[in-house]
Amino acid sequence: MMATATRQSDNPSTLLSKSLATASSLMALQFLSRIVTFVLNQSLVRLATPAVFGTASIQFELLLSTILFLSREGVRNALLRAPETSRSQSSSQSITNISLLPTLFGIPITAICATSYIYSSSQATNSQPHFTASVVLYALAAMLELLSEPLYIRAQNEMQFGIRVKAEGTAVIVKAVSTLLVLLLAGADWALAAFATGQTVYSLVILSAFVRAYPGQSQLVPKKVTEQSKCVRIHFAEFLPTDDTLHSTDFLAILLNSARSFYFESALMRLSLAMTGQSVVKHFLTEGDKFVLSRISSLENQGGYAVASNYGSLVARIVFQPIEETSRLFFSKTLMTANPTTNTPNQPKTNNNSLESSSSKIPKASPSALQSASTVLHTLLLLDTHIALLLVTFVPPFLPFLLSIILPRHYLLHTAAPRILQVYLSVYLPVMAFNGVLEAFLSSVATPQDLRRQSVWLVGFSVAFVGATWAFTVGLGWIETGLVWANILNLGLRAGYGWIFAQSYFDRTGPEGGSVSSLSWSSSVPPVAVWMIFGLSGIVTRMAQPPLLGGWRANIVHVAIGATCFAMCAITW
Fold first, then answer.
1. Phi then psi for 81, rounded to 5 degrees?
2. How many Å apart are CA 70 and CA 250, to the nearest integer?
3. Is residue 10 pLDDT above 80, yes or no?
4. What's this model's pTM, rounded to 2 decimal places?
């Protein structure tokens, strides 16, 4: 069984406490694993050339994320919304069958993506030593990770978060150590193979961790599900004219199919396919910068971009990613009564397989669930606003000094890494944080009709992204930073759509009395005093910023001024 009976009694407060525990665990995992890998990656950056680092961190990672995203993202999000109550063994088996689709879809997707990449890569890329073997290892790593997906989905639905925390924490560290060891022992000619080996080891650790957590319960082939139908008794008097010859005991017993057999629950299957189709556009928007960069930029500049992205993503992975994933889980479970696959207690189960009809209506969650979701969403947006203020205030004046310590000289002087990091940390991350929370909410409650509407808008955002990319990279000549700015525009548009959707959702589903607070921008931003303190701190730290080569004494004074300003901001927070 994919869920236990005890979960039926989960209420919003229980789910919130579990979600907060999940967020703290994921943040602790990300913090510890990223600190360890940051130290190890500092060695990798110094051992690998920018060309190798760009190929592995931009092109190979793009290949891997494309395979995984297209294979599993839609199914993963759909099954988080699987109804909890009255889940029979047959229903659990049908959900298990759907959870196998990422593995089954992954086989042709992996073959197509890997083959296409090998034959479409540039001469400078595929002429590197052990290029083809490295691509094959990345494809193998993708398939190994997809094999663990059914067990991953089961653990998430059972809220067994410790399995994932331990698995990913161990895998990230083992990956960095494996890559470093191969690079040190085999030499520079095996650099690409070293990165590929590290990724393969990562996937093996993930798979083995989930297999150990559920011993003997792995399944690779869907099983047929047989479900018995109920007998429907219809009184003659409802259909025939009144007649003395008819008695109250007369009825017609109709047996609607004694049993039906199927592999996939149709409502969840259609929702999974709808989300999978949408993931194609969303993946292009998410990874569009890497698509463009791999085609228009040199391998050396790709290496600089990769280093900047790796450093910049530390904040995203430690703070924002756990918040986004936990909020998606919380909203999915709290508001699942508004899920199109769930029937209300007083609603007959007729036409249960028609997503079209169910998506045209917006079932209402309980007022307590709606209020809890509204409060949590406001709190998360307010938290993101404070983090954004910290980044905008303190990153620009202190980043140059920090990079002079941690960034290798050839990346500092001969790549665009410093400029990319400046934009990435101070603008891209704040916008990404808002978009992550709002899209997590949308994906948790959207009906198939909502998803189709969003897909249309995502196509429009794709056109805007392509136009902005051309304008920034070709028109303005910002080859690397232009891609970041185009991504910022893309994320901003998506966040705006998510905000409008969230407002509309609470307006449609809230009770008529208005006891549930609608989404309000004034409740999602700090008071004016906070803005003034952060603004003043930003001015002071920029005025006190010394030249890059101003000496240690000037930099120490600048850091002391920054620490004082940070303390003032923390007090007003």
1. -100, 10
2. 56
3. no
4. 0.69
